[in-house]
Write a structure and sequence with these properties.
The chain is an alpha/beta fold. Helices cover about 45% and strands about 15% of the residues. Strands 1-2-3-5-7-10 form a six-stranded mixed beta sheet, with helices on both faces. It has a four-stranded mixed beta sheet with strand order 4-6-8-9. The longest helix is centred in the N-terminal third of the chain and has 16 residues. It binds ligand T3D. The site of ligand T3D has 22 residues, from strand 6.
Length: about 270
């Protein structure tokens, strides 16, 4: 039986999803897309899941689209792919919309769509050995999976243009320095750092964190006025959660708060 393209490890309060095609540097083929979609949907449905870590098996995080599936035979015309609409765009939308934080633990090279899928996660921690490559320009494509949206917002227009047009690897340390990612850590520390972060999220006020995601997701397209209105509405919603009451009580009583998680009170 062939290896599973996606491995899922269900832990106390969070899940670890591993892209598992190490011989191909975890490049995306159809089977991996389908399995990843299933893994994300299952995590979303499981009310005990309050955070997700995504990482890669072997020496890479993900090398983007498996180009072996795009090889035109001699004499044939261009390969027309519908994978953006079918797989990559829904994947990025799902990562952004999941009602809990998603942590990318980038263990090695993240190239093409692999890079932009990592950047679509809420927090990116990378091993020092990792690098980020907008490889698209090398093969005549454009940065997809939200790359042209995320890059200028994260690192500014000048750096975004150079990353996209030159397609040079950006080492993890520089990626942190530029604000492309949250943090670069020693290779041996990556798994532990990402795990500690997910354990923290698994004990956090998850409904509030989901509302933070909603607010930040909306801010790119909103005016200040619209964003202020959204903050008002979300803050009202957040303040009605049992977690807010518990958070305030715990603060006043100088003890650690015990948050309810994703389970809603029966109405
Ligand atoms: O059509 C559509 O669906 C449109 C959507 C496109 C989305 C995209 O992601 S387009 C961009 C696709 N990705 C790339 O262009 C990156 C290609 N890979 C690389 O440039 C390099 O492999 C890396 C810079 C990522 C790593 O380089 P290195 O020297 O560390 O490793 P390597 O020797 O190049 O790769 C190791 C093996 O993985 C090798 O196979 P082999 O020779 O050992 O049998 C290589 O062919 C394979 N591999 C790496 N990336 C891919 C891949 N095989 C298929 N597709 C890949 N993307």
């Amino acid at each position: 039986m062939s290896e599973q393209p996606i491995l899922v490890d269900v832990r106390e309060g969070y899940r670890v999803v591993t892209l598992n095609r190490p011989d191909k540097l975890n490049a995306f083929n159809e089977a991996m897309h389908v399995a990843l979609r299933k893994a994300l949907e299952e995590a979303e449905t499981d009310e005990n899941c309050r955070a997700l870590m995504i990482t890669g098996a072997g020496r890479a995080f993900c090398a983007g689209q498996d180009l072996a599936d795009r090889l035109a035979k001699p004499g044939e015309g261009p390969v027309q792919s519908t994978s953006i609409e079918t797989y990559y765009n829904p994947l990025v939308r799902k990562l952004r919309a999941l009602p809990f934080p998603v942590v990318a633990a980038v263990n090695g090279v993240a190239a093409g769509a692999g890079c932009n899928v990592a950047l679509a996660c809420d927090i990116v921690i990378a091993a020092r050995a990792a690098s980020f490559i907008q490889s698209f320009a090398r093969i005549g494509l454009i940065p997809d999976s939200g790359g042209t949206w995320a890059l200028p917002r994260l690192v500014g227009d000048a750096r975004a243009r150079a990353l996209a047009l030159l397609a040079e690897p950006l080492p993890a340390e520089k990626a942190e320095h530029w604000g492309l990612i949250w943090k670069c850590v020693d290779d041996a520390a990556l798994a532990g750092e990402a795990q500690t972060m997910c354990e923290g999220f698994a004990a956090a006020p998850t409904q509030g964190l989901a509302m933070i995601k909603r607010a930040l997701n909306a801010s790119g397209a909103n005016t200040l006025d619209a964003q202020l209105d959204l903050e008002r509405d979300l803050q009202r919603e957040a303040s009605l959660t049992p977690d807010y009451a518990e958070g305030v009580r715990a603060f006043m009583e100088k003890r650690k708060a015990k948050f309810a998680g994703r389970k809603r009170e029966p109405s």
